Predict the 3D structure of the following.
Amino acid sequence: MEHIRNFSIIAHIDHGKSTLSDRLIQVTDIVSDRDFKDQILDSMDIERERGITIKSQTVCLPYRADDGRDYRLNLIDTPGHVDFSYEVSRALASCEGALLLIDASQGVEAQTLANLYLALEHDLEIIPVINKIDLPSADVDRVRRQIEEDLGLDPEDAILASAKEGTGIEDVLEGVVQKLLPPEGDAEAPLKALIFDSHYDAYRGTIVHFRVFQGRIQAGDTIQFMSNGATYKVEEVGVFQIVRRPAKSLSAGEVGYLIAGIKTVSDTRCGDTITLKSRPCDEAMPGFKEAKPVVFSSIYPVASDGYEDLVVGLEKLKLNDASLIYEKDTSVALGFGFRCGFLGLLHLEVVQERLEREFDLSLILTAPSVQYEIVMKDGATQIIDNPALYPDPTMIEESREPFIKAAIIVPDRYMGAVMKLCLDRRGVNKNYQYLTNSRLEMIFEMPLAEVIYDFYDKLKSVTQGYGSFDYEIIAYQATDLVKLDILINGEKVDALSQLVHRERAVERARAACTKLRDEIPRQMYKIAIQGAIGGTIIARKTISPFRKDVTAKCYGGDVSRKRKLLEKQKKGKKRMKMVGQVMIPQSAFLSVLKTESD
């Protein structure tokens, strides 16, 4: 155990985690130059295209240090986006230390602070690394001051590196060996191991990523998961070196994988404890909780005959993404589909993109919503995330919605623009403090429903890319919630209904009606598009009819002849309107959803 080091790399988005991982892997020679590719730990196409890490990965790096001894460095890579912060916390629970990566030009940002606090909660040793020192805009002295003032760390300990150029990589590895403590644990005690991730292999079933804290595990052992009591027989254990390398056994302090014929990823929950059935440990590792979805949306196939393919696609995707939850849903306008729960808006986008690419599906998603608490007059509490389930308003005593605590770090020249953006979204400014003489941290409490649409994009726009944002859900608070219905020719279209705050209802209704007017084809009769709350119409747009000039053949004579022809046409249009049905194209549904992010 003296020669093992377990560490993570944590950072704000786009500060160079994946590139640094690439350099560490190259320096330790576990991949030949022929097999190497950039972002080697990011296995999904979406991760490569967007330059983000969605699924955390693990790799065991053999390294000979300057003192001549051989070490095994277990790098547990973490996702950077706030949606996946639970995965980050579980990965950190498996480590003794972390490399805190800071961009030399951007400096300390919101998730740098959030990840630092997360690491400190787990009592980790933190090594600051200033990355991207090769950039023309790099300002190392300013970043050192921020490390001291904002983070409270010793700036002299910071390692200078450029992952892109490959400079300072040896210093990083030496820092891990010298500054991080070796793991502790008794290899002879009952087995206690923490699951920090898992993924599905089509041939071997679920592959569990875990860290052994005490005891030993080997093929043939019968293990038990402490959260659900499920037992399995271990077929193989080993370590990750890009490919899986089987080992005879793994003992206290080591990180690796196990295969035990587990059929679904949802059986292996992130943060759960593994022990031996024959000799269990006395208590589970602390901190296990279910990853709870916060954003909900319904997914429907564009063509109704694509439903079976959607069922298969979701089942297969669920094997690789245990945090995705879904249940059957139906809509009058869109047919059969699924109501899905996501960790955040990025998670929703990733799931949609994976379903469309990997399973060749064409999908429609309803407007994202959050979970609301509805207190009825009889004292019962309902939790709803679907406008279709909204109860009769006369039966409701109180509605509550989830609020978040948002931490926004910006240069002070953007303070006014950020303040206006947050106050427009019903935010309340709780606190702000200067981190340095030109950068400040602003704390707001605001409704999650106002953040999930386009808040992040708007924040980046008003701060010209310098604003950074991190949030956590704090509590449910009372709100004035209404159900906004969209009517086309007096008929409700259930797929376009939304739950909104009363102040926002008129604005949302007008935007939806305008989009639909532009998308729905004209008919021979007038089409009314209305936004309504209950029986009250709050917005309306009209699609003008095509009009045939029936008076063209009247060259003169009495005007009553023309009038008679127009009256006849009017009656015909009225009759047509009674029997006619407005076909809403798929593009109209999509356009209304895009309204929210324009």
